[in-house]
Write a structure and sequence with these properties.
Two copies of one chain form a homodimer.
Chain A (H helix, E strand, L loop, with lengths): L17 H4 L4 H10 L8 H10 L1 E5 L4 E3 L7 E7 L2 E6 L5 E7 L4 E3 L12 E4 L3 E7 H10 L1 H27 L2 H16 L1 E2 L4 E4 L4 H8 L3 H13 L3 E4 L2 E4 L2 H9 L2
Antiparallel strand pairs in A: 1-8, 2-7, 3-6, 3-8, 4-5, 4-7, 9-10, 10-12, 11-12
Helix pairs in contact in A: 2-3, 4-5, 6-7, 6-9, 7-8
Chain A binds a DNA duplex (30 and 30 nucleotides) through helix 8.
Chain lengths: 254, 254
DNA sequence: CGCACAATTGACAGGTGTCAAACATAGTGG
DNA sequence: CCACTATGTTTGACACCTGTCAATTGTGCG
């Protein structure tokens, strides 16, 4: 997040790991809620109303915010950190459906047609999520029509993204899958630097595989080939996209 | 095909083959709009208001309702018939994203976050679709909050379905894919009969392949195996699921 | 310093896509 | 009513991609 000074955080958040344990401050919550696309266009007092009705929760890396099948009782907005949504197949393999960052929401509620969570939500980094109970969310939807419209537009957009993923999984070879996944992640979380776009989200090759519909070994072979060709650079938990144009080209060819 | 000129044909032929060429009658339109989940809970006069603002269009099998990339100017509600949504890959292969029937809606509008259609919409059978202009749809969304809530719930549900498709494509072998696709179609369009659930939607094995992320040849081999095992029966353009339990079991095993 | 975990690489087999050809069916026109 | 034709279906052979299993190397952390 580029905001820098980050609005007077009184809590002694030295840096890095320590911010994880503490729930975020009221200031941070208000700032994040105002920036959340779901609440775009709301008046300040409406934002404060939402804030008053939500409950902050600090999460540790790897911690599950909720599990598949648990009753759908909350919607979450990410204040800081990243959360990944995943399902596990019967044989134990994982599928990562999406990766969300600050300002994005996830979860389930009867108003969205779900009685139970339809995936696991796991914190990737330390951070803080704001929980809205299903009843609260429903009340907001009714009281503030704009939120319903925002939610509709955002969900439609996600549906479109999911359909593109279906398209990719149906047609692309593993090499193209990995290229597409890297580009998708870079567009959302990449930090542009001198050597290229850097991805750092505690993302392992296992995660990449689970997002690309393939195995860690195959991901590794593809990455090795990319590295030999000078397209990417990578290490333990990080990736740098050095030649996005070439990756784009790969993505579009079978 | 029967006559092609027909406009506003009186109620007359309520079903059967003759309904194809003609745009549907006002009665049919009102009945269908009242049944459409998108407009669930609306008062009669509101339904009539929607009907007054929409434009009926008859479609022939194979006819494109709209193409990928055209400006997103309409939302469509299916009155009769079936419509499939598809994308075509760079190499020409098709991917069928979804198959919709009476009462379901598709299309794009700026209110949903799209400036252009994100897929091709092709009529599978003869039928009639009702078109709402983007401006009209947006006006309805604002004037009738219930529609926005319905749209949100329906879109969320579709997103969930798409995520399950992603999960399936990421983990399942071709055999399981085909089983899953057949079950999904049967749940939505199957007609229960003495011999099993029958699928008849002018669905070819090519379509099945495009929905299962594989090739027509592979689909055929799988179907042949299923037929030998007594799980399904199939012919030119139709399928009968004879043992749904066995197919369900297949779907869940790698 | 050593442990746990991620990354890397190789060998191998099976599944699937590709190419090709024969066959069956439904709708067409004579 | 029947042959004809376009289209969908069926089957075979084959290569190659990719998943699986296994072992080694490298990195970060306690």
């Amino acid at each position: 997040m580029p905001e820098g000074d980050g609005v007077t955080q009184p809590v002694g958040a030295s840096d890095g790991t320590s911010e994880g344990a503490a729930a975020c401050s009221v200031d941070v919550r208000l700032t994040m809620l105002a920036r959340t696309p779901l609440f775009r266009g709301l008046e300040d007092h409406e934002i404060e109303g939402v804030n008053a009705r939500c409950r902050a929760r600090a999460v540790q890396p790897g911690e599950l915010v909720f599990r598949w099948g648990e009753p759908a009782e909350s919607l979450f907005v990410i204040a800081t950190g990243q959360v990944k949504l995943m399902e596990h197949a019967s044989d134990g393999r994982l599928v990562v459906l999406d990766l969300f960052g600050p300002g994005e929401f996830f979860g389930s509620a009867p108003a969205l047609g779900d009685d139970a969570y339809t995936y696991d939500a796991q914190a990737v980094t330390a951070g803080c999520v704001l929980a809205l109970s299903a009843e609260t969310f429903e009340r907001i939807l009714h009281d503030v029509p704009l939120v319903a419209l925002n939610a509709l537009a955002l969900t439609s957009q996600r549906l479109r993204d999911a359909q593109q993923t279906v398209h990719a999984l149906s047609t692309l070879a593993v090499e193209a899958q990995v290229a597409a996944t890297l580009l998708r992640l870079a567009a959302k979380f990449g930090e542009v630097g001198p050597a290229g776009t850097r991805l750092e989200a505690a993302l392992t090759q296992v995660d990449l595989a689970a997002m690309s519909g393939t195995t860690p070994e195959s991901v590794n072979r593809v990455l090795s080939a990319f590295r030999r060709r000078g397209l990417v650079d990578s290490g333990r938990g990080w990736f740098v996209l050095k030649d996005r144009a070439a990756l784009e080209a790969l993505k579009d060819s079978h």
